[in-house]
Every structure is written in structure tokens, then in C-alpha cells.
Design brief:
Length: 297
Amino acid sequence: MGRNKPETNYGRLAYRYFGGIVEKYLGSGFKDLQIQLSKANIRITAAEYLSLAVATSTIVFVFEMPLLALIMTVVFGNALVGFIFGLFGGIFTTIGIYFLFNIYPTIIVDERKKKIDDSLPFAILYLATISGSGTPIVAMFKTIAKFKEYGEISKECSRIVEEVELMGSNITDALETAAKRTPSEKFKEILWGMKSTITVGGDLKAYLHEKAQSSMNDYRRRLSQFTQQLSMFIEMYITVVVVGSIFFMILTTIMGGIGGDGAGFISIAQVAMVLIGLPFASFAFIVLIKGMAPSSD
């Protein structure tokens, strides 16, 4: 496997000291991880990425284990108990960090896929428009790459231009590479279609206009579905969070009046509901709706 140098001094040091261990013991998972890294637009090899994961996990363990052991020794007044807590705490944290490194590319891939799918109808519509002016295909992608409003699609188009102008690939090979790299199935289908149309000498303008129309219709359907889902979630929020919180406050107040001994605990529960429960529930709904919402960014 060809290897590019890591982009940071930390990355170079991690690969220098841990690369051999990673390639010896973790090499079996390189192929699948490399595919995920490519789709996530993380431009390092699987060996370099896992070296970063192992190095970071090791550093965290070395610093956290004695610190946690010292804190637990002070808390419990027992050095052995402190050492055990520090050891197992360091091990669990190290495993957690390594696990996060492994799932991070997948998270980025999912985010890129959503951003590409959201911007795709507008990007394809623009491509279809400029294709009618006889603009060369590479110039079309170069134009899209300049529009940062298209987000991840602009980055994909920029890489296609780089492969053609800097690396000497022809446009069909660059389209094929981009189709294999992109996390979006919709964008992949369009890139393969463009490659096929160019190869057989078909009408690229007609193909792009057809795809632009179908993509825009799909985007309208997604907007309609999101509107319906949003109405349902608003009703759920009002019923569960707002009305539920009011009912909880009334019920706990009545219970506090009946059984005076637990008034202190009930007051704490009510404060926790107002200061923690409501903000957390509202934040969760905001994140959920934002993740579902189609956008043109």
C-alpha cells in the first residue's frame, strides 16, 4: 500500500513509533478502514490513522492512570484501592478512546453523505445549466468547486479537477474514482451515469437535465415528508415535555403537601426538572429535528 506522510508532526511521530506494531497486529482491518477514510475525506492511510489511535490511547493511559490513582487514594485513604481504580479507569478510558477513533470515520461519512444529498439537487441543476453552453466537463467541475455553498460536493468536484489537471488522469477515470470514493449513493449514481454518457458519446446535457429534475422532485418529497414529521414532533414536544412537566410539577406539589416529610426531596426533584430535565429534553428535540431537516447548504 502506498503511503503519504501524515500532515502533522504528531502524526509522523505516531506512525514512526507505533506504525510497525499496527501493521503487524492490526493489519487485517486495513482494507475496510481505508475505504471509510477515503469516503470521510481523511487523506491518510489506515496504518497512519490507527497509529494515531494507538498513540493517543497510550498517552492518555500514561497520564490518566497515575493521576486517577492519586485522586482515588486521597478520596478513599487507601493506596491499593486508589491503584486499582486508577488502573481500571485508565484501561477503560484507553479502550474508549481507541473505540472512538474507530467509529469517527463512520460518523464523518454519515455527515458527508447527508450534506451531499442535501446539496445535490442544486449542484446538478447548476451543472445541467452550464452544460448547455458547451463548457468542457473539467471546467464545469472547476466552476462547481469554486462555489463553497455546495459544501461537500464542491470538495468532491475539486478533487476531480485535481486528478485531471495535476495527476494527469482522464475525466472518465476521475469520475470513476470519485464514484467509488463518495459516501452518497445518489451522487455515485450520477457520476457513473456521466462516465457512461461520456464514454458512449451520449447527450450529457440531456442526462444532467433529467437527473436535475428527478433530484429536485426527490428534494420536494423530502421537504414534504419533513413538514409532516415536524408537525408530529411538535405535538409530541408539547404533550410530553411541556404538558408532562406541568403535570409533574402539580403532582409533586400535591404529594409534598400531603406527606410533609419528603418536601425537601420533592423540591430538589422540581428544581432538577426545571434546570436539567427541560433544557435537556429541548436540546434533544432540537438536535433530532436539525438532523432530520433537509438543507441546501
